[in-house]
Amino acid sequence: MLTLNMLAWATVVGALLSYWWQSDKIKNNLMGQVLVYCRQHHVQFLDQSMVLKGLAIRRTELGLLGLLRRYQFEFTSTGEQRYRGTVEAIGRKLQGIELEPHLMPDNNDLLN
Questions:
Q1: 38, exposed or middle or buried, with CB in 10 Å at 0-12, 13-18, 19+?
Q2: How far apart are CA 59 and CA 43, in angstroms?
Q3: How far is CA 107 from CA 13, 46, 74, 85, in A?
C-alpha cells in the first residue's frame, strides 16, 4: 500500500534525479562551447573536465528566475603551464567564458 510518506520520498528522489540529469546535460553542452572557445583563442582545453564552483539564483534577460551555474576548467596556451578559466550559464544559456591572463606562444608555435 502506497502511503503519503512513501509518495513524498519518491517525489524527492525523482526531483533529485531530474536535477542531476538536467545538470549533466547542461554541463556537457557548456563543455562543448568551452572547447570551441578555446580553439578559437588558440589554447588547449585540458582534462576534458569542468568542476562546478557555484550555484545561485539569478534573473534572466526576460526577468524570470533561473539557476546560475559557474564551472571552472583548466587550459594551456604553451603546453607547459596550466591556467584556469570559468564559464557561467543561467539555465542552458551561456552567460560568459573567461580565461586567466596567460602567455601566448609565437604564431608558428600555436597549439592545435
A1: buried
A2: 32
A3: 52, 20, 22, 22
Q: What confidence tens digit (pLDDT) does each residue in 27-78 have?
A: 999 999 999 999 999 999 999 889 999 999 998 888 889 999 999 999 999 8
Looking at this protein, which amino acid is placed at residue 3?
T
User: Rounded CA gap, 36 and 44, in Å?
Assistant: 10
> Of 59, 55, 47, 63, whose CA–CA distance to 23 is shortest?
55
- Cβ(58)–Cβ(68) under 8 Å? yes
- For the chain, the farthest-separated pair of C-alpha atoms sits apart, in whole angstroms, at 71
Q: What is the pTM of this model?
A: 0.81
By C-alpha distance, which of 61, 65, 79, 71 is closest to 30?
A: 71
